[in-house]
Amino acid sequence: MNKELVKELCDLIKGEILLNELLSKHTSFRIGGHADVWIYPKDISDIKNILTFCNSYNIPVTTIGGGTNVLISDKGIRGVVLNLEHGLCGIKTKRERITCGAGALLSKLLKQASKEELTGLEFAVGIPGTVGGAVGMNAGTKEIRNLEYISIGDLVESVKVIDMNGNVSELRKDDLCFEYRKSNLSEYIILEIKLKLKTGSKKEINDRISRLLEHKKSTQVLDIPSAGCIFKNPDGHSAGKLIDEAGLKGLAIGDAQISEKHANFIVNNGNASAQDVLNLIKKIKLTVFEKTGVKLEEEIKIIGI
C-alpha cells in the first residue's frame, strides 16, 4: 500500500496503524513474516470505515485474534490485518449473562466469570487467544473424568458480526451452527458475543479451574512456542495417539519439532520457519495415512500460504 493510501486510511479511523509489522510478534508459534498494514481499530465504526476503504481499492483484509491457532507464511500477509484486542475488548455481566468484545482475552473472560461466581467456562483455562477466535473455531476440550466434549459454542446466545461489506448484524442461537472445531462464522468478522452461564460456588469454580489447569500442564506443551493442537481428532481416534504410534514423536525438520510431551503439538525450538512446520505437517499426514489409513485434517488456520 503506497503512502497516499496509508495517509487516507489514517484520516478515516481513530485506531492505531502500524506499517510493515512483524507478525511473529503476534503469534504463539513465533512464526510469520510482515504485514503490510496492521491496525488496532478503536470501535465498530473504525472497522466499517476500514472495510469500505479496502473494498474501494481492492485491498485484502485479514483478521487475527490472539494468534494462537495460526501458522502464518514466512512471506507475511499482504494488505490490511485487523486485530481487535485494543478496541473491542470490554466485558459486561448481567446476572447469568456475559457480553464480551471479540478482542477480549479468553483468560480475562474466565477470570471475570469466576469473580462473578458464574460457572461453565472453566474448561477454557489454559486455552490462549481471544474470545472471538475461540467462538469462531468453537474452542473446547474434553472433561477429565467423563471425557464429554464441551465447547464455548454450547454457551453462546448470540454473536454480533460484520460482513466484509461493512454490514453489521446479530446472529441468534438459531442462526448459529457450532460443530467440532468449527462454526458458520468464518465469512464474518466477529465483534461481540453474548454468553449464558450458570450461578455457581466460587470455591467449586476455582477448584475445577485448578484441577483442569494441572491436567493441562501435565499433558500439554505450555512453555515452548507452539500453536496448540495441529490436527483435529478424527472420529473415534486421538490425533496425538495416531502420531505417537506412527513413531513420529520427537521428529524435527529444522527447528520445528513434534513435541515429546504431546504428539499433536509442533513446537518452535528457536528459529522454525513456516515452511519447516508445513514440511513436518506433510510428513505426519503421509506417515499416519500409510500406517493407519486415517486422514488427518489441520486444526490450525494456515494464512498467506
Structure write-up:
- By secondary structure, the protein is an alpha+beta fold.
- It contains 7 helices and 21 strands.
- It folds into 3 domains: 3-82, Uridine Diphospho-n-acetylenolpyruvylglucosamine Reductase, domain 2, CATH 3.30.43; 91-217, Uridine Diphospho-n-acetylenolpyruvylglucosamine Reductase, domain 3; 221-303, Alpha-Beta Complex (Uridine Diphospho-n-acetylenolpyruvylglucosamine Reductase, domain 1), CATH 3.90.78.10.
- The chain has a 5-stranded antiparallel beta sheet. A 4-stranded mixed beta sheet has the order 1-2-5-3, with helices on one face. It has a 4-stranded antiparallel beta sheet with strand order 17-20-19-18.
- The two termini are 20 Å apart.
What attributes does this structure have?
single chain, 305 residues, 4-stranded mixed sheet, 5-stranded antiparallel sheet, alpha+beta, Uridine Diphospho-n-acetylenolpyruvylglucosamine Reductase, domain 3, 7 helices, Uridine Diphospho-n-acetylenolpyruvylglucosamine Reductase, domain 1, Uridine Diphospho-n-acetylenolpyruvylglucosamine Reductase, domain 2, globular, 3 domains
Named CATH architecture of the largest domain: 2-Layer Sandwich
**Rg to the nearest angstrom?**
20 Å
Low-pLDDT windows of residues: none
The helix-strand sequence is HEEHEEEEEHEHEEEEEEEEHEHEEEHE
CATH class of the largest domain: Alpha Beta
Looking across the biggest beta sheet, what order are the strands in?
6-7-15-11-12
CATH fold category name of the largest domain: Uridine Diphospho-n-acetylenolpyruvylglucosamine Reductase, domain 3
Work out the oligomeric state of the chains in this entry: single chain
